[in-house]
Design brief:
about 300 residues; alpha/beta; Rossmann fold; 2 domains; eight-stranded mixed beta sheet; four-stranded antiparallel beta sheet; polyamine biosynthesis; signal; transferase; thermospermine synthase activity; Putative spermidine synthase
Length: about 300
């Protein structure tokens, strides 16, 4: 999970990376080096953060309010839950990219009868999420230690919602950003199901990522979320605003979500992806057989850190 949101008050101070150690008032709870990440867990009450070191920079992956487990301090994690108003049914949810588990845990708490499965590649991330971020195994809540694409490929299940929030530094792992991957995801959606993905808009791959998901899913809605973009994609016809508004109102009332679907719907954006005015017309659809050598090497190493 990647956070680039600008958050006010104490949380903004908490998320910032200090220019020098003396200026950083956070308390380092634990640091670990795994096969995949250099992981640091910080605390500045009431918030805890899980951060990854990548190419001499620090990226905040997850933020947890220790006084309020239902708080989603970071904007994009809230907008990932907008997917709930799109799906025909809510029986099963799959999340690829767990991090500190805040989005999955929030949905589990408000939808306790729904099967929530999250997949995380790094076992050390899971260890620290359980130790510091209030995560535990419960009925209808399960976290699998597996590569997300391999998990979907091997799964016989179909899901009403698939959330994609896997990051390595500032980038989504390439094998989770190709046309073949999105086709695999589509094949594992239940009837009326949707996909939501968190995408960092300032990277050079953003336009290609939009074109690629659109090559599989004809409908893509955009939610600007504090510096990130959440894309909600689905097959079939466009879900009309009035229909979404009705579902949002019903499900807000039924489940009592902290962050109202109706409020998020007001931020929905539709753009013409094909006319080249917003998304670069020269951007390429990403495929498994066309990837940077560095990305292919990473995939061969099962996404482990390069020496």
């Amino acid at each position: 999970m990647l956070i680039r949101s600008v958050i006010s008050g104490a949380l903004a101070s908490f998320l910032s990376i200090a220019a020098a150690g003396a200026q950083d008032t956070r308390n380092l709870l634990e640091s670990k080096e795994s096969l995949y990440n250099n992981i640091y867990v910080y605390e500045q009450a009431p918030y805890r953060s899980m951060t990854f070191g990548h190419n001499r920079r620090i990226y905040t992956e997850s933020v947890y309010n220790t006084r309020d487990e239902l708080d989603l301090p970071v904007d994009y994690t809230r907008f990932m839950t907008a997917s709930v108003m799109y799906t025909k049914d809510i029986r099963s949810i799959l999340e690829i990219g767990f991090g500190g588990g805040r989005t999955a845990w929030y949905l589990h708490r408000f939808l306790p009868k729904v099967q929530v499965t999250s997949v995380e590649l790094d076992p050390t991330v899971l260890e620290l999420a359980k130790k510091y971020f209030g995560i535990k195994e419960e009925p209808n809540f399960h976290v699998a230690n597996r590569d997300g694409r391999l998990f979907v490929q091997e799964s016989k299940e179909r899901y009403d919602i698939i959330l994609i929030d896997a990051y390595r530094g500032p980038f989504v792992p390439f094998h989770l950003l190709t046309k073949e991957f999105y086709q695999l995801v589509k094949d594992h959606l239940a009837e009326g199901g949707v996909v939501a993905q968190n995408v960092e808009p300032s990277t050079m791959l953003f336009d290609a990522a939009v074109k690629t998901i659109h090559s599989v899913f004809p409908q893509v809605d955009f939610y600007e979320a504090g510096g990130n973009i959440v894309m909600v994609a689905y097959p079939g016809d466009e879900r009309k605003p009035e229909d979404l508004a009705g579902i949002a109102q019903e499900r807000d009332k039924e489940f009592g979500f902290r962050y109202k679907l109706a409020d998020m719907l007001a931020q929905r954006k539709r753009i013409d992806i094909d006319n080249g005015q917003v998304i670069d017309a020269k951007a390429k659809v990403l495929t498994d057989d066309f990837a940077p050598v560095e990305a292919l090497k990473t995939i061969e190493r099962h996404n482990r850190k390069l020496p």
